[in-house]
Amino acid sequence: MPDSATVERTDAELIAAVRGGDTASFEPLLRKYQPRVFATARRYARRESEVEDIVQEVFLKAFYKLDSFRGDAPFEHWLMRLAVRTCYDFLRAHQRNREMSFADVTDEQTDWLDHFAANPADASENAAAARELVEKVLAQLSPAARLVITLLEIEDRSVKEVAALTGWSVPVVKIRAFRARAQMRKCLEKLTRGKYL
Amino acid sequence: MNMAELQKKLFAAARSNPPSDDVPYAFEERILAQLAAKPAFDILAAWNRTLWQAAAPCVAVMLLLGAWTRFAQPTDSSRETLAGDLERSLYLPFDNSTETW
Questions:
Q1: Which of A132, A134, A151, B19 could disulfide-link to B10, CB 3.0 to 4.6 Å?
Q2: Is A170 at the interface with chain B, CB within 8 A?
Q3: Helix (H) or strand (E) holding B87
Q4: What is the pTM of this model?
Q5: Is pLDDT larger for residue A142 or for residue A108?
Q6: What is the ipTM of this complex?
Q7: Nearest residue, CB atoms, A34 vs list B10, B27, B42
Q8: pLDDT tens digit string along A21-51?
Q9: If you measure CA to CA, which chain B residue comes closest to A30?
Q10: How distant, in Å, are the alpha carbons of A34, A133, B77 from that of B31?
């Protein structure tokens, strides 16, 4: 028979304990879910200090809003919704209106674009230059566009899942996704206009 | 350059490079320290909760009063009194000014 101290408590038990005033019971929840929240925050913030601030805010909100968790869905879903909304608030608060031009593209990225222009099928998706380039382009998008592109295209989620995570309705997600793709294409056109168009 | 194809390639590049899920050392302790430092009782949250809880009874009382005033049989005398009072109150300033001039 396992020792009672080593028996892992379920999320529901831990949540009930936290609601009852036992703050220490929040620690196992934190340990369990912080890697996922860190990975989510790193999609939207580049600096590690910003990522840590976002994650801290998510867990503080989770702690203080725990009473609003009804338990209909798993705690993880509720927490990820909170994380996505906190990331969206972060994007809105740190919105920059800097136009990117071809001058902002590094030599490696230019090489990758040259390679893509010459032979699109051969350009590697695993190249660091491509990854940096997409990061730069995403940084140019509006917060809503960046969020919807990240969730739909990069995390490969369904429209319904995006609607549940963001709190937007399904038609709003579809409209925002359409606009976001157009906005991204515009950014790419601006970026490549001088050299390739 | 084919922009749609470039966009697809860039999405694939982003997908192939998921962000790390590393957690800084003792990060959970930092959050628990924050929780311990903050007062357990958030007065604004409690006020907010109370207001929301009070909203439903207030709406119920409003609907009951509305229904009562709508469906209660008005007596002729009360209607006259109310109409008379309203008329007197409305015309009072004009009556006074006529007397002064």
A1: A134
A2: no
A3: helix B76-100
A4: 0.71
A5: A142
A6: 0.78
A7: B27
A8: 888 889 999 999 999 999 999 999 989 999 9
A9: B28
A10: 11, 34, 70
